[in-house]
Write a structure and sequence with these properties.
Length: 254
Amino acid sequence: MNDRLISQLEARLEKVTEGIFAHFFGKRIQAHEIALQLVRALEDGLQQPQNGDSRPLAPDQYTIRVNPDVLEQVYERYPTLASVLSAQIIELAAGVGYRLKHTPNVYLTAAPELAGNQITVIAQHAHAQDLTTGALQPIEMASAHPQPVNPQLIISGQKVITLDHAIIHIGRSTTNDIVLEDAYVSRAHAQIRLRFGHYVIFDTSSNSGTYVNEIKIREHQLRAGDVIRIGKTSLVYMEDEPDQFDQTDSFNRV
């Protein structure tokens, strides 16, 4: 185990997140523990140099498993943590001479069997075909939260698609749930996933990127009126306001 790597990552996490671990996780999970698990997973997943490049190949897909209560706090109070960790993995790999084939994807998932102070990290080498179904799995917690009311995507101002699944694949390939006949759209371009009662859009390492309200995103929690741009295609996300009676009756977490 490389203690220098762990110390570097721990220091960077504390600096970038400005004490998120103390404020949001309490004393249950420290930056050191996340750094330790990430570095261990990164090093365990190294592949030998190939294609004439002398640098070991680092994993580019990291699944962080935590207790569901901890995960909910992260999503509610620090939704960009996955992006922060991804950026730190890039910097860390470059600093020690490792190579990355793709921008690292970091996914936080619920693990009910873990205690509040436990964390596990699984590192893998993602392949292009794995960035659709395999890379993002729905978290089985959505039923405990209020669901979006009549969520829809309006495509190019004409076609209306109702969102009625926990995970929706978007791309040019005919295997997607939403097929966009647009040369600038990747075959597997993006996913929309139901998470804690809200739909979240993820870019799945597309060639041209995914934009929400003209800002390039890796993931974004959708709100009514958001304009998504995928390739040359515009999609508007809409949902109805929840009924006041239903809201007070079923929404019990604040």
